Input
Amino acid sequence: MKGKLSEDAPGLVAVLNTQADFERAQVEHWYRIPVKSAPEGVGNIRWLAFYLTQPFGPEKWSVRYWANVCKITKAKRADLLPAEMNHPRSQNLYYRLGLGPLRLRPEPILSRRRRLIVFIPSIWKKFTAALEITW
Output
């Protein structure tokens, strides 16, 4: 994988549970993380990868896509998703991660044990070398 990231560039593997969130990442180039449950150091990450779950059919239980993180801001969920103004968490604060184009890994990182993953902090060197989720 080529990129302009140093080997120790901090990043994050985040779960993608819906096609709508994948489309936002792919087309609108952003992803949201609730401030309340964000992992430590999220404000410093340089890249974001996605762990795909059940709705992704044959690609489920794997990490295949990633993007550079270009900008990190905070916003209320209602501002990020105006069509969901009545959502119970509409007033909660989220990190909005502005992303570059989604890129496909040459080899997916597989989770043979179908782990329940929310976030996996990592560094670029480990992400580019990984072939299986082992924790």
Notes: The first helix runs from residue 19 to 28.
